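Suppose a colleague, Dr. K., hands you the sequence of a protein chain of 392 amino acids and asks what its three-dimensional shape might be. Before reaching for any lab equipment, you can write down a predicted structure in token form. Begin with the sequence itself:
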Amino acid sequence: MPSALIIGGGPAGLMAADALLSANVATTLCDAKPSLARKFLMAGKSGLNLSRMQDTETFLSHYSEGRDSLAPMIRAFPPEAIRDWAEGLGQQTFTGSTLRLFPKAMKASPLLRAWLARLTALGLETRTRWRWTGRDGETHRFDTPDGRQTRTADVTIFALGGASWARLGSDGLWSEAFARDGLPLTPFAPSNAGLIVPWSAHMMRHFGSPLKAITLTAGSLTSRGEVVISKRGLEGGGIYPLTPALRDGAALHADLAPDLDLAAVRTRLSKPRGKQSVSNHLRKTLGLSPAAQALLMDCARPLPQDPTALAALIKRLPIPHHGPRPMDEAISTAGGLSWEALTDDLMLKARPGTFCAGEMLDWDAPTGGYLLTACLATGLWAGRAAARYCAG
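The predicted structure, expressed as tokens, is then:
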């Protein structure tokens, strides 16, 4: 019976195991942490976003890096297939108003328990607290609670993740061993990260306040979604999609009245203010919240009195920043193993029989189901390719 070794127990590694076991390949999965899929569980605490129920081409358009390479894998395991897979594990799903796909339980733990039960029934062997430290020829070395261990197999799949949330297992340290072997790598960079903004002391009372109904722009990227003012800057789904531009130093601008054009804002601001304060005037004419007004004042004080100049500022408010939060605080990372190192089957060109999958590959995507979909799709693709390699 052919054998497989999977190194990394996140969604990509588990999906690769599913494909191999379904093809009758004896499979052992090793992970450095005491339990599997720890980042998957953490991501699902606030609602496990499995995918997004868009047509495949629209879905693919959200990948800023690696899109062409990912395309055949996501077409082979699109959002509809992910929904069917989850429901096949006994987890009912629903699609929200933004087309995001969730399990009805909302948490990751019920889905993971059902998935692991399936894999165990298929014969998966797991080794936890086994940290991969490198290879000697075809033999892989691990540090374990019982000392150094080695393993070999007919095929190997690496699914070691990116370089964020190191405490959950994605520390990127595998890249050092890959670099020593001469494999091409793209440097890691934060993605889906909060933004560092140097607030004045006046913003302190607004920490934790949401900014709703605004549009943010950085470079060629635009995002409309809620962000939260924090002590460190801006956080939330409205800022995360702009990380690719912000980490390259692009300027950030906010439209505080995105449902009105410039002329409409100017007309409303031109109404007589009388004895009203500026804040009351902005609230009554434009509906600006206290948090939005605080952002306007902090970034553009003193405000111009001329309605035309003030309207232009409200429609394109520059927000100074110092770039994204550190990489380990990011939800995900860009960079990793370069596609040029891989065949179309995700096999290393320099090492026949060794495959790679998941976030360790050089692709980038926003939150909203795109991250998990790519991990699952590449894991399934690599697992099926490895099974074919064994059969050959």
